[in-house]
């Protein structure tokens, strides 16, 4: 099957050449254990620290504030549990939203079972979270505020900055964690500007290899590790680093280029796509007008997600249904947004990358249009 | 010391003159199932089949696991084969079952002597061996009624065999001994269980799956491959025919009354499956239906689907509750976790809002006159794609 359009970049991205080369070199030449004392070890350690610097530079932070993990899910778990358990004597409330990624949401559910009070702020009908709600949810008993910067299903941008104000105002002992997996490499993610103490990012959403990610932990902030048994990553994440993937991550971070320019280009393509969807008619846009243009959630009214997705796939075009699957399992985010029944049955998530072109987007729109007329509605 | 597997066949003993054929079939099935582990030599002695690995490198743990899933076996055991010299038999028993005997506190010895030329009688063997083992393992006491371990000594024509525990076999009859049938499989919980149950009664399986892209996905078909792979552990190799069903389903949707979608769809499926069954020399169809489970499985609905079949339709789950089926899917076929993967399958496409639960045959026949399905059914059967599983 030839790929005629890839619009599932929020699930994963195609590794860029720079990343592929870096992985190759790490596998073929620089394969030592970075903790070893001999020259093969030092060689690898140099590669490890170079990669760390590359990721740190994209986050505008110090390289010693970067800890490599296996990816977004591990990073979020480490951040949420590590912070909550570290501060459990200082308070009991954790503030979050009801549209977090499962790796935060289910970690919070577990913390709820352990006795923490979990507050999940609800979004509006576009998946946006109001600043006032964050401010009023944080009290002096709050030990953790954890929020994503960009929602993975609808692209809404969450005003994470408000968390800092809320914490200061409430005189709470809280740490602030931001899951920036979907924002990283698309818009500037600067922990200091976000007011975040911990930030999660992942490699394979920025054209790097899978199996690696990182968390930023602000200098001076302490969290508890989830695993024990090694000195790697300053005891925060023990275990020999996955060097080929780490090297690829570093290279992918280096290769990001001008984010502002990419965003402008992607915005134009997104606007063009929305205009064409409007011409076709019968397509509801579930994403907010001010959502990150890289992620657009639509509902093709009357056509269930799965047949449309299968049809597009048979045309060489990849999108995601936004919800896990048919058979009753519905998207939690869209449910929280209060979508009506028709829109709930037919969501598609179209997610761009900086490599997305207008031509392939036109192929997507054409295929959606022909799917819409060819597929029997339920 | 050589280790072998002693296999007692089940209902085979009852089958009179056919016994030989059945035994041959059982041995063939075992050979197939064990092939990837290495070669075994099979020998029939009285009502026992002895499977002996040709090389010592063969993983006998794996072999035992696989033999446990071959139908037509009532019970089997791992045994040590030993020369028919009583002193050697005694030391072999002590050595082979050492671990079991060390872990037990009571035991007994049972002996079977089919080689009547052997100098000791069965009671004598028991007595002598019991004394010998008591001496070797002084912590043991004899308990003839409820021992922790039974030491079995069998004196057969070619050798003596020593074994401890007997393992219950999968039961049933050797797959293939009852012929071949065609399983309709959607990807739900029921059909793999139905296939398993009929294989147990000696049927070899071929299967038909209906794919309706784009309404169903490639993943739904892969799920069926994986489900059947689990069934093949019991049934042996299965030829799966994947039928492209989209055109027929779209035509039902466009041209038939909505309340009858499912009944008509099932009639079409039966017709296609029957054509494939005939081509494959399969004598019956197998489905996972159970009375009243869903609208298309009420008695009148089943009557409507049955009416298009000229060969028998076996429905082994017909009187079972869902939890009974799930029990088999969990504990026997190990297919439950796969079955509940949430992909749309052919049966969930275009489900009517209010299906008719008491359709009459007249109405079903009238309802499907809305389009010329005959050429489509033939085309679907003709163009079905074969995937060999197992």
Question: Would you write up a description of this structure?
Answer:
The complex is a heterodimer of chains A (378) and B (390). Chain A is built from 13 helices and twelve strands. Chain A is of the alpha/beta class. Chain A has two domains: 5-14 and 258-374, Aspartate Aminotransferase, domain 1 (Alpha-Beta Complex); 17-254, 3-Layer(aba) Sandwich (Aspartate Aminotransferase, domain 2), CATH 3.40.640. In chain A, helix 4 links the parallel strand 3 and strand 4 (117-121). The longest helix of chain A has 22 residues, at 259-280. Chain B has two domains: 2-170, VC0802-like; 179-389, Rossmann fold (3-Layer(aba) Sandwich). Chain B has helices at residues 19-34, 60-67, 86-96, 98-103, 122-136, 190-200, 218-235, 246-255, 261-279, 299-306, 322-331, 336-339, 361-367, 373-382; strands at 2-9, 40-45, 48-53, 73-82, 106-113, 141-142, 149-155, 160-163, 167-171, 179-184, 203-211, 238-244, 285-286, 313-314, 385-389. In chain B, strands 1, 2, 3, 4, 5, 6, 7, 8 and 9 form a nine-stranded mixed sheet that branches. In chain B, strands 14-13-10-11-12-15 form a six-stranded mixed sheet. Chains A and B meet through helix 10 of A and helix 8 of B.
Q: Largest beta sheet of chain B, briefly? A: 9 strands, mixed
Task: Give the low-pLDDT segments of chain A.
Answer: 323-327
Number of helices of chain B: 14
Order of helices and strands of chain B: EHEEHEHHEHEEEEEHEHEHHEHEHHHHE
CATH superfamily of the largest domain in chain A: Type I PLP-dependent aspartate aminotransferase-like (Major domain)
CATH third-level topology of the largest domain in chain A: Aspartate Aminotransferase, domain 2
Q: What is the count of distinct domains of chain B?
A: 2
The end-to-end distance of chain A, rounded to whole angstroms, is 28 Å
Oligomer status: heterodimer
What is the 3D shape of chain B?
elongated
The CA-CA distance between the termini of chain B, in Å, is 34 Å
What's the architecture of the largest domain in chain B, going by CATH?
Answer: 3-Layer(aba) Sandwich
Structural class of chain A: alpha/beta
Number of strands of chain A: 12
Largest interface: A-B, 19 and 15 residues
What is the average of the pLDDT values of chain B? 93
CATH topology of the largest domain in chain B: Rossmann fold
The CATH C-level class name of the largest domain in chain A: Alpha Beta
């Amino acid at each position: 099957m030839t790929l005629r359009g890839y619009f599932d970049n929020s699930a994963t991205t195609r590794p860029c050449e720079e990343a592929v080369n870096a992985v190759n070199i790490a596998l073929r030449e620089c394969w030592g254990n970075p903790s070893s004392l001999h020259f093969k070890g030092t060689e690898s350690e140099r590669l490890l620290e170079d990669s760390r610097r590359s990721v740190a530079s994209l986050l505008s932070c110090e390289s010693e504030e970067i800890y490599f993990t296996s990816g977004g899910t591990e990073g979020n778990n480490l951040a949420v549990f590590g912070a909550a358990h570290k501060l459990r004597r200082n308070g009991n409330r954790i503030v979050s939203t009801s549209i977090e990624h499962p790796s935060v949401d289910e970690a919070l559910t577990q913390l709820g079972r352990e006795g923490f009070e979990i507050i999940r702020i609800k979004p509006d009908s576009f998946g946006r979270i109001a600043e006032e709600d964050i401010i009023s949810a944080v009290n002096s008993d709050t030990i953790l505020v954890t929020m994503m910067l960009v929602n993975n299903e609808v692209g809404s941008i969450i005003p994470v900055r408000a968390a800092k104000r809320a914490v200061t105002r409430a005189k709470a002992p809280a740490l602030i964690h931001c899951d920036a997996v979907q924002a990283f490499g698309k818009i500037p993610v600067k922990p200091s500007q976000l007011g975040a103490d911990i930030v999660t990012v992942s490699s394979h959403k920025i054209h790097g290899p899978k199996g690696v990610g990182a968390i930023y932990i602000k200098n001076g902030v302490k969290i508890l590790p989830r695993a024990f048994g090694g000195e790697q990553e300053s005891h925060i994440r023990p275990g020999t680093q996955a060097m080929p993937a780490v090297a690829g991550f570093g290279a992918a971070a280096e290769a990001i280029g001008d984010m502002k320019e990419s965003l402008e280009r992607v915005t134009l393509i997104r606007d063009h796509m929305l205009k064409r969807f409007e011409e076709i008619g019968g397509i509801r846009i579930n994403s907010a007008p001010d959502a990150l243009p890289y992620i657009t959630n639509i509902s093709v009214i009357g056509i269930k997600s799965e047949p449309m997705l299968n049809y597009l796939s048979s045309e060489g075009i990849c999108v995601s249904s936004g919800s896990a699957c048919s058979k009753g399992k519905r998207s939690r985010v869209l449910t929280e947004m209060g979508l009506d029944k028709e829109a709930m049955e037919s969501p598609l998530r179209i997610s761009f990358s900086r490599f997305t072109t207008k031509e392939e987007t036109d192929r997507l729109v054409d295929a959606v249009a022909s799917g819409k007329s060819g597929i029997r509605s339920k | 010391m050589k280790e072998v597997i002693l296999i007692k066949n089940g209902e085979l003993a009852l089958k009179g003159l056919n016994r030989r054929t059945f035994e041959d079939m059982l041995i063939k099935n075992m050979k197939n199932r064990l092939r990837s582990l290495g070669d075994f030599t099979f020998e029939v002695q009285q009502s026992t089949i002895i499977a002996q690995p040709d090389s010592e490198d063969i993983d006998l743990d794996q072999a035992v696991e696989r033999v446990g899933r071959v139908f037509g076996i009532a019970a089997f055991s791992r045994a040590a084969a030993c020369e028919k010299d009583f002193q050697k038999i005694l030391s072999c028993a002590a050595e082979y079952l050492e671990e079991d005997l060390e872990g037990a506190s009571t035991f007994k010895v049972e002996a079977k002597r089919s080689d009547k030329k052997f100098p000791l009688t069965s009671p004598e063997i028991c007595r002598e061996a019991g004394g010998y083992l008591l001496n070797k393992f002084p912590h043991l006491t004899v308990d003839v009624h409820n021992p922790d371990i039974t030491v079995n000594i069998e004196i057969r024509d070619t050798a003596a065999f020593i074994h401890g525990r007997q393992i219950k076999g999968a039961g049933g009859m050797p797959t293939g001994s009852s012929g071949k049938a065609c399983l309709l499989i959607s990807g739900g919980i029921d059909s793999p269980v139905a296939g398993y149950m009929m294989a147990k009664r000696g049927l070899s399986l071929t299967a038909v799956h209906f794919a309706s892209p784009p309404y169903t996905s490639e993943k739904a078909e892969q799920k069926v491959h994986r489900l059947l792979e689990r069934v093949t552990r019991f049934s042996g190799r299965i030829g799966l025919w994947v039928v492209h069903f989209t055109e027929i389903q779209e035509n039902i949707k466009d041209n038939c009354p909505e309340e009858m979608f499912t009944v008509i769809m099932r009639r079409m499926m039966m017709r296609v499956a029957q054509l494939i069954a005939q081509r494959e020399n399969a004598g019956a169809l197998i489905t996972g239906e159970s009375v009243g489970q869903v609208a298309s499985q009420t008695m009148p609905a089943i009557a409507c689907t049955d009416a298009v079949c000229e060969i028998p339709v076996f429905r082994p789950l017909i009187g079972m509750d869902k939890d009974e089926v799930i029990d088999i899917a969990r504990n026997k076929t190990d297919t439950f976790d796969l079955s509940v993967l949430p992909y749309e399958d052919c049966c969930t496409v275009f489900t009517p809002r209010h299906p008719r639960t008491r359709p009459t045959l007249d109405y079903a026949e009238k309802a499907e006159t809305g389009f010329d399905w005959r050429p489509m059914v033939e085309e679907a059967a003709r163009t079905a794609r074969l995937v060999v599983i197992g």
